[in-house]
Structures are given as structure tokens and as C-alpha cells.
Amino acid sequence: MHVAITAGIRKGAKYVLKVAELLKNNPEFHFYLIGNQHNDMSCGHLITGNFFNNVTHLGPVLDQVELAKYMRSSDVLIFPSESDYCPNTVLEAMASGLPVWYHNSGGTPELVRRDKYLGGVPMTPENDIQPLHVLIENLADFRRDALSLTEKYFDSEIAGGQYLDLFKKLLES
Question: 133 with 111: CB under 8 angstroms?
């Protein structure tokens, strides 16, 4: 099970490291950190200090082709950010068929849950690993829903049309 996380400073890397610690003896799990987590004052030293044998810090990945490669090789995206309002990373992951394990805040829940579709599960403070097990046990269903969500609600044609409608309404008022 390869798990990718893309996050920056103060974006919740500490949650991922906590789970990595709990799963350190399970060879099925490996966590790839993409971004500037090494600059995080609360846990950056843990990321760069080789404290975890199941965590690989890749640093910032700016090449979109390379980033897509990491997404495709992963099974789940962990998005622990506590404050993003419309994270493109989540949309890109779901468009790649990656279910998202996310912090239940900001705009992420609105992106991941719509109507009958469920493209991931929220982190729960009372149980660090259970949501990840739910994703794994139902991986095919979550993958299908993640793709369906992006096709139905976030396709560029649909989103562009919604923006156009909004701009027209604003101009009329």
C-alpha cells in the first residue's frame, strides 16, 4: 500500500507521521511525502532525520508528469491540511482515481462528498488508523466514486460553465 501526501508547512504532516509510527512494523504501508514538510517547525526534523523506515520525503515535485507518476503509483492520498478551501491536490488525486483520507475541515469535505458519491473518508481524532482501513477494505468503490465525482462535478467544461453563470449573475446585479 503506497500512500502519498502532498502538503506544505503547517499542513498536517504530524498526522501522517503519527500514522506512519503506528504502522511502522507493517511492510504493506509506505508513505511518500511530497512538498516542503521538512520546513515544518513541529516535525521537519523527523522527516529529514531518517526516523521512519516507512516514510520517504521526496521534497517539492514541480514536474506535473513526475507528480502524476507518484499519484498513479499510490493507493490513497492523505490530505491532512486543516485549512485549505479548494485544494487542487484533492481534485487531481480523485481525477487519478485516488481516494482521499482528509482532515475534515476547510473545503475538502465538499469536494470529497457529494450526493451518493464518496471519494474518501475523514480523519478521526479518536481513531488514528480506522479510516485508512475503511479506505483499503473498500478501495475499488472509493476509486470509482472519486473518478465519478471529478467527472460529474469538477470537469473543466462544467466548472467553466458554472463560473460563467456566476459572472453573468454578478454583472446583472
Answer: no
What is the CATH code for 2-172? 3.40.50.2000
Q: Which residue has the cell 516542503?
A: 36
What does pTM read for this prediction?
A: 0.81
Q: Which three cell numbers stand for residue 76?
A: 490513497
Q: What angle do CA 159, 7, 99 make, to 5 degrees?
A: 55
Confidence of residue 51 (pLDDT cuts 50, 70, 90): confident
Tens digits of residue pLDDT in 13-49: 778 888 899 999 999 999 988 877 666 656 666 666 6
Provide the CA 30 distance to its chain's centre, in angstroms. 15
**Grid cell for residue 133:** 482501513
Contacts of 157 (CB under 8 A, 6+ apart): none
Return the half-sphere exposure (C-beta side, CA atoms, 13 A cut-off) of residue 114. 16
Q: Cα(118)–Cα(137) distance, rounded to whole angstroms?
A: 14
Give the separation between CA 147 and CA 120, rounded to whole angstroms. 11
Per-residue pLDDT, 81: 84
